[in-house]
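quick one: KG4 bound model?
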Amino acid sequence: MTILALETSCDETSVAVVRDGVVLSSVVSSQIKMHADYGGVVPELAAREHLRNLMPVTRAALREASTGVEQIDAVAATQGPGLPTALLVGFKAGQGLAFALNKPFIRIHHHEAHLYSPWITGSPPRADFDSFQPNVSLIVSGGHTMLVYVEGELKHRVLGGTIDDAAGECFDKTGKLMGLAYPAGPIIDRLAEQGNAKAFDFPRPLLNDSSDDFSFSGLKTSVRYFLRDNPKLLNDPQAVRDLCASVQAAIVEVLVTKTIRAAKRLGVRCVTASGGVTCNRALRNELSIACKRNGFLLRLAENNLCTDNAAMVGILAWRKLLLGVQPSDCDADIAPGIQLA
Ligand code: KG4
Ligand code: ZN
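yep, here:
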């Protein structure tokens, strides 16, 4: 079974070819550099870039997989959530292709695809569902922060999410206050390496709250006030490294503590994480330490599968077809605000 998968929910145009659970190709064209000039993703520009890039990226994915369109058995695309104009490009192109080839079309929920990306490993990457076990999954990126109980394959329940900013947004916005380029997450990660995480004390929002929800806007505001009261600090490179390490430590502590607490409460033996912020080395490190201490198996998505990609879309589509989920209509609409159940 060969699946062509498309992902255009935000600022990455990605196309993958997945055959029987193996990712034969996953081409990602990132628009980060273009949006960096504006300090964030501009939806209209994102849509135009997707339009410009989708065909070349599709051709590249097929070429890399040595696959012709006549070998495609099904087409999958991200239906939502995401930017409406961006989603439209990949979703409608996918439906058009499925219709033209007279093959099934599978609509994919972007967050559900993230849930299974930690199970894609190796070279070439392949889905390792033989070792799948119930888990608590942390999805953290610029647009989403949530904890999900994955009881079984295709069976999940959202435990909580952010009530304001996403964790990646917090990295990006606090970085902006420090004068760092967009997206600031990877820059903070790098600067924090030589910083003292205990130098400055920032709040850990909702850390002791019994819910599985997150809130990061208060942390961002406290950094804003801190910089207002210490304006000269930004002239001292070591103080900036300390600030990065301290902010990062606050975000990471909240994410790790709440993930572990949820996993313990639900009695699972496995924790997974995905989404752009899962590239953060402190988060990866602290999650591994906490999981080891508490006896949980930890599955972190590989870095190139943390950020948005079509490989996870194709793998989930393959799994859905295998487990008997019915394909969707070729005229279904995008669902920009669709929530994970
Ligand atoms: O998943 P993603 O590519 O896009 C969506 O938001 O859906 O995630 C991008 C986010 C940005 O906020 C970026 O700053 C953050 O992930 N990010 C990181 C790191 N790499 C990416 N945050 C902290 N440390 C990193 N190493
Ligand atoms: Zn995402």
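The chain has eleven helices and twelve strands.
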